[in-house]
Amino acid sequence: MTSSPKKPLILCAITLDTEPDCDINWRITKPIAFSSVTRFIPELYRPLWNKYDINPTYFTSPSVIKDDACIRILKNEQEQGAEIGAHLHPEYIEPQQKYSDASGTVADEFTCSVYSKEVEFEKIKNFTELIEARIGRRPISYRAGRFGADLDTIQSLKKLGYRSDSSVTPFIDWTTRGGPDHSNAPIQPYYVASENFYEANDDPNTILKIPLTIFGKRLGRFGRLLPDSWLYYQWLRPTHMTVIEQKRLISKTIQLYQDQPIIVFTMMFHSMETVIKGTPFVRSKIEQKMYLNRLTQILQYLKKLGCQFVSVNQVAQLYRENNIIPELSTLKRGLRFNNYLRYKNISAKQYNKRFLPTYFFWRMPSDRILMPLVKSIHHRNILDVGCGTGCYTNFFTAQDNRVLGVDKNVHLATGQSFPVIESGANDFKDKVPGKYDLVFSSWLADYLGPNELQAFIQNSHAVLEPNGELIFTAISPKGWGGLYIWMARHVRHVKKYCYRHAEIRRWMEQSGFSNIEIIPMNSWLKIPWAYIVKAKKPVTPPDQTMAGFSQPIKIGLLARGLTSGGVTRFINNVLSEFDNVNNPHYQFVLFTDEPSYQNSFTRVKVAYVKKINKILWEYFQIFPSIRREKCHYMIYPKCTIPLTHLVFSFKKLVVIHDLAFMKEKFLEYKLMDTIYLKLAAPISCNKADYVLAVSEATKQDAIRKMGLKPDKLKVIFEAVEERFKQPVPQQRIEEIFRKLNIEAPYLFYCGVLSPRKNALRMFQAFAQVKDQIPHNFYVTASQSWYDADVRQFIKDNLADRVFFLGYITEEELRALYQRATLYLYPSIFEGFGLPILEAQASGCPVLTSNVTSCPEIAGRGAYIVDPYSIDDIRDGIIKIISNESYRQQLIEYGKRNLERFSWGLVVHKILALTTHRHTHD
Fold it and tell me: Most-buried pick from 142, 156, 425, 872 (CB within 10 A)?
């Protein structure tokens, strides 16, 4: 006898986008009001939640979370089991806040993709902390405020501790409104892949995407003829769907996923939808009753099917607790999102097939001419002017080009996979950073009047590198051009322009372009009025004034596998200083596998190549880019030179941050990394033209351990960022301390607890004095190699006085430094010891060791101890805490000590070294 198959668990998450009241046209009321929250949630929704045992999720917007009356309602809902999630409309949140309140909104709301990754992260972080402060609980579920979230959003959410995102709307294409294309999105939850937002992942530690329950358009195949509006989709929500339609949608979903352990429904609607004349759906008392009746019947139907009503967070918990990892085959719908505005897996042809006349009589023949030209462009720094509809830019990004967009209509351009600057074609030269190899524009010139087109040409010349190229298309009045312009103006009511070849050529010459080509776009469909303009900015004569050589010095920097460690800080600060070098005698190139560095600098060119494997990347993948750039110098900031790079003739500078991998007892690196560094570092340093050590102690280590000649080694101190010298406001410190549960007075340590940091002796010394002082000891250490004995000692002896804070932000770190009575850093081995300078810059006295680089870096601004003596460390703690005048003296000496270090000085030494070598070779 065979057992019957186990029925799947059916879950339904009821979610409300909790926003201010609207009028009949779906515009926020003036003055702003919140009756949909303060009145209708307790009066209409809460009785339903109680009746059917529902734990809803309220995705709250910034304006709601700032209203005290709304907070009272939401706190009450939270006490009864509801979840409060984040529903970000980024234009209402700092940084770069556009509106102070929702009633100021017009029809130009912005998606997060308009902002940089860093700004977006800060917006989400600020909103998250605002919800936590107002509600008393940190949100862990998220929904985008418009058009969905992208990979940057997901990465930010993961950093901030979110568990789930419910922004995907399957079947719906938002590209015409500036958003992503969810046409082929999965219907059931899936984990987001770390490298590609539109792929599934088997890692339950990342964000779980919980799509809304939506199927295709209504009326089946005939529905395709309906307008492309969300109103015409089958959507599990009580607004525009009848009860019968929603029941069919539910049945269809269950039938499709009946072999899965869990079937998830996500019902979404807005809080204001029940307000009479608050939306187009409820315009009278009768329609309000009909709306609630539809909602009630669906809840009854789901309950009858055995459905459990859960919050979005509870869905994520069930997936993780039961280790449910959806396979690609079980998602049924596939995971290709075909967003031509944002990603690179769809061509302009596929997009324009939706507009068949345009496609066959315009786009297809123009593609035959322009597409080969576009596909021939690789590894260039491109400015795309008029990128709003992104016809060819997806190919640029797919071909490893660095792209920056310019467009007046940012809403059309928000979905791009590259940054977009809001500007017109006639005034962008002062708004875009840096210089470009190519300025490109397709089908822009016919929208520009004569003065605007001349300004576009002049702007393009201003932002191009010498020998840079300008490519754009234009319309000629010959042949059918005049007819086309007439039809555009009178039929489509779009003001367009056409230009004769001679006019274009004259304007190009006046702006300083040479090698001007005007290429008619004659295809098999014969479009004689369209043509391509190509021209180059001439190479300016080289400056002969610099110390005996006639061309700029090009300096490259190889940066692979950047994290948040000390090497990355070195690289970032050096790049920042390079970017401030306003001297035509120097050019800088960054070779990296980190995409976030693209479009980050004005004077540093970024050569980005996506990493397959770290060894393959360093040895082979980046090789063509390095060969193409023809640098004079290359800086290797990670102590090794890939052997394949030895074939290049440029001068090689290797930076040594420390030689901990040579010290067996510390075991600082993984076994394979240690073996590689021990073999490769000595070879690299001997082959290098110069070796840059970050301290005199590191220089002496390199001489002893590697047998390097002293004249090859140069010392370039690191430095602390200026922001550590800026005090955190008193009120902000108090907020941080409440959040982290910090009580003064306290001692502080920031770092890992590995053997070379001497953490065990540090805590043993503290154990000897803990009864003599009132101080607690706060530590930000993360898990590290061989720290079990340290943690066990703390557990056995200091559990009530030593507290681990875990991950903290830089602002929180600065606040902890500023208020600490003493910062302890009795390290046994340091290459430089940057935390010493951080503490000194923050006005905190330092206790450090008398070995390796620590006394060299600390100067007179620290109490120096024997790191192997517990008694010495203990006595230092007592002296600094008990003698306030001595403590203040250390603080003053520490501030003076900082004058020896600056990142500008680091770069000055590098440039002086390259200039000297360049002029003498």
Answer: 142
